[in-house]
Amino acid sequence: MSLTHIEIDDEALETAKRLGGHRTKTAAVAHALEEYNKRLQRAAAYDRFIALGQDWDVEGAEAAHRAEKEASRE
Question: Which of helix, strand or coil describes residue 23?
Fold first, then answer.
């Protein structure tokens, strides 16, 4: 953990403490950073899945699924 000196809007920080139920400024900032990192990770995952989906062949997948179902009926 590192000690960092930054300027943060006092009103915004107090609001975050109150709404988040945090007892300290440090806890409020730590929680905010955790949530921010989670949001960025979700966005990166969405971007990866969208990139993967660009090459998907929906019609081909549907045909393969139908063929698989037909084969299991036999």
Answer: coil
